[in-house]
């Protein structure tokens, strides 16, 4: 992870919090077009383009003053959508009862399972996988996303 992201997160968190939003993901990446700062925001009532634009303007003004990124970059602010990664206990709690694909550290190496989120606490997620219960520590999860069924 780029060390600047911790500083950027500390700088923009008050903006996100004041607007009643949750910061889902903050990433600073070198892409083909150059450096991109990607900010994913969430709120229960949903996120629209006007809110993304407002957050973008406020973050831009702040970062111009604080200047944690000294080179040129592109700022992207958006909502994570249905395919967003589940990274926090709150993400899993919001999606209890839904199907999830989860990659995690097993005793003998990385494992992948698909199951239904049954219960969540601050330390672990309890899934039902093919009729069996599976408890996974949040710290062992490498990647988790909802399985969208049509």
TrEMBL record:
GO terms for biological process: ribosomal small subunit assembly; translation. Residues 86-150 form the Ribosome maturation factor RimP C-terminal domain. One of its GO terms (cellular component) is cytosol. The keyword Cytoplasm applies. Keywords: Cytoplasm, Ribosome biogenesis. Residues 11-82 form the Ribosome maturation factor RimP N-terminal domain. InterPro entries: Ribosome_maturation_RimP, RimP_C, RimP_C_sf, RimP_N, RimP_N_sf. This is FIG000325: clustered with transcription termination protein NusA.
